[in-house]
Amino acid sequence: MPTHIAETTTLHNGVKMPWFGLGVFKVKNGVEVIESVKTAINAGYRSIDTAAGYNNEEGVGQAIREVGIPRDELFITTKVYNDDQGYESTLKAFDTSLQKLGLDYIDLYLIHWPVKGKYKDTWQALEKLYKDKKVRAIGVSNFHVHHLQNILTECEIKPMVNQVEFHPWLTQNELREFCKEQHIQMEAWSPLAKGQILEHPILAKIAERHAKTPAQIILRWDLQSGVITIPKSINTSRIIENASIFDFELSQEEMATIDSLNENKRTGTDPNTYD
Questions:
Q1: CATH of domain 8-259
Q2: Where is the site labelled Lowers pKa of active site Tyr (predicted)?
Q3: Mind telling me the catalytic residues?
Q4: Can you say whether residue 102 is alpha, beta or left, with left for phi > 0 and alpha for psi between -120 and 50 degrees?
Q5: pLDDT category, 273, cuts 50, 70, 90?
Q6: What is the DSSP string of 62-104?
Q7: How are strands ordered across the β-sheet holding 228-229?
Q8: What is the CA radius of gyration of the chain?
Q9: Is position 210 annotated in a ligand binding site?
Q10: Which one has a higher pLDDT value, 2 or 216?
Q11: What is the pLDDT of residues 46-62, one digit of tens each?
Q12: pLDDT tens per residue, range 80-119
């Protein structure tokens, strides 16, 4: 298990992706996102996750330029927005994202949601971008098992990552098992269930035992579950606190206790009903 913030897992195509990163969903473009990203990178984060739909790619790109870390030490993810899905429109959307970020390539490009009737064509566009070496890895976000099966029956290149809502209330066991069998790396968005789970007495008890916060316990549980995690924060002390999870380990018993909190409860939209 990772013992350092810059540690990576190897995706099925050999690309190394950090276990831990910063998400910037709902972080305002401009000063807010620039400062968050710079704070995170200066605190040792090497992975930043944005999306065309977050409307802050320009700010992320500016922060990367200002912070002065060599590009090849960073891992940048962005996603194709739902309105842009389809083959040609995805290729155009990718160019727009690349331009806004001010980068020569993207480390990981994801389909943001499985838009019915479009995501297969979108996947073919991602395969082209990958073959053209414009992206180092390609994947999906918010895909259930049946969405993945639809892609896998026709794809030339398997998704390398599936980024989904994942936290102790939503442990996604069937999906995790399927992704493991297919060598698709799971990644957690909303790992802290939008903060709603942080008051849970069981998490508080485990946190006290390790002299950590409930948030740190959950993020450590993600990593020990083999799931990449990208907590979001714009608060400097929280960005640093979230990353302070590499100096302790949860016992098997504690892991099982946290697993048992599952209620199949979502704080976000179900991909099956996403409009």
A1: 3.20.20.100
A2: 79
A3: 54
A4: left
A5: confident
A6: HHHHHH---GGG-EEEEEE-GGG-SHHHHHHHHHHHHHHHT-S
A7: 22-23, 47-49, 75-80, 106-111, 135-141, 161-165, 185-189, 228-229
A8: 18
A9: no
A10: 216
A11: 999 999 999 999 999 99
A12: 999 999 999 999 999 999 999 999 999 999 999 999 999 9
